[in-house]
From TrEMBL:
Catalyzes the dismutation of two molecules of 6,7-dimethyl-8-ribityllumazine, resulting in the formation of riboflavin and 5-amino-6-(D-ribitylamino)uracil. It holds the Pfam family Lum_binding. Keywords: Repeat, Riboflavin biosynthesis, Transferase. Residues 1-97, 98-195 form the Lumazine-binding domain. This is Riboflavin synthase. The lineage of its organism: Bacteria, Pseudomonadati, Pseudomonadota, Gammaproteobacteria, Candidatus Palibaumannia. The gene is ribE. It comes from Baumannia cicadellinicola subsp. Homalodisca coagulata. Its EC number is 2.5.1.9. GO terms for cellular component: cytosol. Pathway: Cofactor biosynthesis; riboflavin biosynthesis; riboflavin from 2-hydroxy-3-oxobutyl phosphate and 5-amino-6-(D-ribitylamino)uracil: step 2/2.
Length: 207
């Protein structure tokens, strides 16, 4: 479980590629190394990955076919940066919202507007059938960052970034056409699916 509060940014230092499989290594900040062991869960751009090797502050993760297909991790190059969050524990403050680290799809940044100390980004989901889960003022995970949905239009939606988010996460460096990972709030996902199922059954019985 994660909270959507990014604890640091890590640079990708190496990639080992195999068929439908990659091992990549990142350089973690010293502050995130305490107590880290092989088998631990760490969110990279919001995607829950398992630590496979630790060499000082160089930490390795394996990425399988499904993760490569559904996330932006397969597009990363050596030198790129990722948002990092260690798994939450019983003493962790839930400063964002509860997140699983399970990426449902990606989205493209189609417009970025900066004004004074504010920034608004507009996103379009890669899978348009999932747009029904994007609701005004609901939580959403963007590259592991817990954010609140702003305006929602037919097939796009916006997010408003405060200076803290711009300065402490990779979103501050993103440009238009960048691809970000999306995690939908699980409560909304379950609610929408339940209502759809109920209405489908109701209308079948009415007919």
């Amino acid at each position: 479980m994660f909270t959507g509060i990014i604890q640091g940014i890590a640079q990708l230092t190496s990639i080992t590629k195999k068929c439908n499989f990659r091992t990549y290594q990142v350089k973690l900040p010293d502050s995130l190394l305490q107590g880290l062991t092989n088998g631990a869960s760490v969110a990279n751009n919001g995607c829950c990955l398992t630590v496979t090797n630790i060499n000082n502050n160089l930490v390795s993760f394996d990425i399988v076919k499904e993760t490569l297909k559904r996330t932006n991790l397969g597009t990363l190059q050596v030198g790129d940066e990722v948002n990092i969050e260690r798994a939450a524990n019983f003493n962790t403050e839930i400063g964002g919202h509860i997140m699983t680290g399970h990426i449902i799809c990606t989205a493209e940044l189609i417009k970025i507007k900066s004004l004074n100390n504010n920034r608004t980004i507009w996103c379009r989901l890669a899978d348009h059938t999932l747009h029904k889960y994007i609701l005004y003022k609901n939580y959403i995970g963007i590259d592991g960052i817990s954010l609140t949905v702003g305006e929602v239009k037919e097939n796009i939606f916006c997010l408003h970034l405060i200076p803290e988010t711009i300065n402490r996460t990779t979103l501050g460096k993103k440009k238009t056409k960048a691809i970000v990972n999306i995690e939908i709030d699980q409560m909304i996902h379950a609610t929408v699916n339940t209502v759809e199922k109920y209405l489908s059954t109701y209308w079948k019985e009415k007919c």
